[in-house]
């Protein structure tokens, strides 16, 4: 059921967390929620959904540059910081969930929105990754009242 070989997931998971944390330094004034949402729906993230080796091995700063240059024409939306470590946790969680349940990143962020992540973060961010992903899958995404 997993999206691709487990050999790639440590790189993709760690890199995505780092990408989401580095945006505030690399793109001063960026609206972090805009970036995360746009990135999760992007062609680069689609390539990572399939563990494209070029993008799976790309350092976080290069992924940000590639995304902004190639997919956003060098422009980005300005706004506010999301704050703290929630962007990093979100990046890692989205990458792990996408891999574990073989769902596209676009479908995932449309189903588990950033508002949902903000709501569940306090309860789940200190759990182990496997437990947090399973909790999200069973109680959030499979809940018809979600």
Notes on the protein architecture:
There is one protein chain. The model has no long low-confidence stretch (mean pLDDT 92). α1 (9-26) crosses α5 and α1 (9-26) packs antiparallel against α6. It contains nine helices and no strands. By secondary structure, the chain is mostly helical. It has one domain (9-141). The longest helix has 18 residues, at 9-26. The radius of gyration is 14 Å and the shape is globular.
List keywords for this structure.
146 residues, globular, 9 helices, 66% helix, mainly alpha, single chain
Short description:
The chain is mainly alpha-helical and 146 residues long. The chain has helices spanning 9-26, 32-40, 43-49, 53-56, 60-71, 86-101, 105-111, 114-124, 129-141.
Q: What composes the largest sheet?
A: none
* Structural class label: mainly alpha
- According to DSSP, the number of beta strands is 0
Distance between the termini: 23 Å
Round the Cα radius of gyration to an integer and report it: 14 Å
- Low-pLDDT runs of 5+ residues are none
Helical stretch count? 9
Topology:
Blueprint lengths: L8 H18 L5 H9 L2 H7 L3 H4 L3 H12 L14 H16 L3 H7 L2 H11 L4 H13 L5
Helix pairs in contact: 1-5, 1-6
